[in-house]
Each structure stands twice: as structure tokens, then as C-alpha cells.
């Protein structure tokens, strides 16, 4: 038996300008937020590079991307500056590198 298909009310986009703004907002969030994280997770897998803990979709938020050189703007596409670390190892990594930075003369 075939149900008669009733089209929903069409979603009306008020103006082209509004639609563009929405697209810009979504793109901006992706770029500013987690685009390198997504790439790094794809490249290196859902696993902590330090303790070897594996992650699943429901705890993936605990897996973070560490920048080996500490520069969050250095995001080469081959992933050479990224390391996937769980929040615990990431914290550990930074408490060490903080000392390293201190010994090297601190922040720029
Ligand atoms: Zn770890
Ligand atoms: Zn880090």
C-alpha cells in the first residue's frame, strides 16, 4: 500500500544574504574549531600516541591533538606536527614542555 506523499512546508530561506551568512558561520566554526583535529585523527587514528589508549566515538572528546612544536598555526597537511594524545598525556606533555620552554628562555 502506497501512502500518499504530502510535501512538507518548504523551508524558506529569507534572503540570499542570510543563507550566505549561515554558510560562512558554519565554515568559520569548522576552520577555527577542529579541522586540524579531524585531519589528525584520520591520519594517526583514534589512539593516544603516548599511552596507547584507544578511543571510540563516545569518548573521542578525550583525545586531543598536540602540536609537537607548540605552534597551533603550524598545521602541515602530512600531520608531521600533530600527535594525538589523550587529555592526561597531553597535560603531562605540556607540564614538561613548559619547563623546556622555561629553560630555553620562555615565550617569544
Ligand atoms: Zn595517553
Ligand atoms: Zn599540546
UniProtKB/TrEMBL annotation:
Cellular-component GO terms for this entry: cytosol
Matches recorded under CDD domains: HNHc
Nuclease found in the keyword field: yes
GO molecular function annotations of the record: endonuclease activity; hydrolase activity; nucleic acid binding; zinc ion binding
Nuclease listed as a keyword: yes
Taxonomic superkingdom: Bacteria
Occurrences of domain HNH nuclease (ranges): 35-91
InterPro entries: HNH, HNH_nuc
SMART domains per the UniProt record, alphabetical: HNHc
Keyword entries, A-Z: Hydrolase, Nuclease
Similarity comment text for this entry: Belongs to the HNH nuclease family.
NCBIfam families from the UniProt entry: PRK11295.1
The protein's name: Putative HNH nuclease YajD
Lineage: Bacteria, Pseudomonadati, Thermodesulfobacteriota, Desulfuromonadia, Desulfuromonadales
Amino acid at each position: 500500500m502506497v501512502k500518499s506523499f504530502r510535501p512538507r512546508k518548504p523551508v524558506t530561506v529569507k534572503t540570499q544574504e542570510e543563507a550566505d551568512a549561515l554558510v560562512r558561520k558554519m565554515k568559520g566554526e569548522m576552520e577555527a574549531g577542529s579541522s586540524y583535529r579531524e585531519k589528525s585523527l584520520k591520519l594517526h587514528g583514534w589512539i593516544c600516541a603516548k599511552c596507547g589508549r584507544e578511543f571510540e566515538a563516545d569518548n573521542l572528546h578525550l583525545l586531543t591533538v598536540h602540536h609537537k612544536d607548540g605552534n597551533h598555526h603550524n598545521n602541515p597537511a602530512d600531520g608531521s606536527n600533530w600527535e594525538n594524545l589523550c587529555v592526561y598525556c597531553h597535560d603531562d606533555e605540556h607540564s614538561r614542555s613548559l619547563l623546556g620552554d622555561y629553560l630555553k628562555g620562555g615565550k617569544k
